[in-house]
Amino acid sequence: MDIKLNLDPKISAVQGRLAGVKRIIAVSGFKGGVGKSSVACVLALLLAERGKKTGLMDLDFNGACDDIILGLGARFPQEIEGLEPPVINGVKFMTPAFFARNKAVNLRGEEITSAILELLTVTRWQQLDYLILDMPPGFGDAALDIIRFIPQCEVLLVRTPGALSQNIIAKAEAALRDLCVKILGELQNMARAAVRYDDSLEVAYGKPRELLKTQFAEDLEREIKKLGL
Ligand SMILES: Nc1ncnc2c1ncn2[C@@H]1O[C@H](COP(=O)(O)OP(=O)(O)OP(=O)(O)O)[C@@H](O)[C@H]1O
Ligand SMILES: [Mg+2]
To answer: 33: burial class by Cβ within 10 Å (0-12, 13-18, 19+)?
Structure first.
């Protein structure tokens, strides 16, 4: 790890906030629209349903949508020595959408880095078995920053069956290996096998209990068991 990381008090503060979290899973795909957010939300709901202490953090500042998928409504974090995330269906949930007030987030470059760091620094997760991170698409500054701030995360790569997604995943895997980041595994979404295309998914957005009854959730449960979750 870069020695500068240890000297930055904010990064130490992030690590302090994550001290009680056993496993951090970054749901990534390095390609847009492959199902990262749907997988991150339903994965968190499935783990919470098993009785695991679970958190979910939407780190896609420019395209946060987990609040819609989970049906956040009027819930808001409580301020108690930081921000205590509200709980949806057993999942502690944090998102930049709390602060964006239904507007597009038009941050760029360093501003995104600062905002990610701020959210990670203020959020009080306490003890968790799993923290799921919904990663931004691509392999740009934001994704690299998150990996730099949370080097202990394990990356779950979501891809679609197509050759384009496969090509990008192969490059991403090599880049992650160079950065010494643990790769938990790969998940095929909208595929014939693995996690299949499911018409009922869109209809169940906003209703966590309905999401857990979808074929998507059933497929995901089976596939994550294969990855040891
Ligand atoms: N297995 C599936 N069956 C049917 N629709 C799906 C499936 N997986 C994802 N979708 C749909 O694909 C679209 C993109 O999904 P989602 O937002 O989860 O992807 P994403 O990778 O997070 O996108 P982004 O890169 O924009 O963050 C959504 O409309 C979602 O409903
Ligand atoms: Mg997304």
So the answer is: exposed
d(CA 178, CA 70): 34
Ligand closest to CA 31: 1
pLDDT tens digit sequence for 48-97: 999 999 999 999 998 999 999 999 999 999 998 899 999 999 999 999 99
Amino acid making up residue 155: V
Residue ranges of domains in the chain, CATH in brackets: 3-226 (3.40.50.300)
Side chain identity, residue 172: A
Distance in Å, CA 37 to ligand 1 centroid: 7
Do residues 49 and 90 lie in contact, with contact meaning Cβ atoms separated by under 8 Å?
yes
Task: Record the pTM.
Answer: 0.95
Q: Nearest ligand to the C-alpha of residue 219?
A: 1
Q: Distance (Å, rounded) from C-alpha 225 to C-alpha 214?
A: 17
In residues, how long is the chain?
229
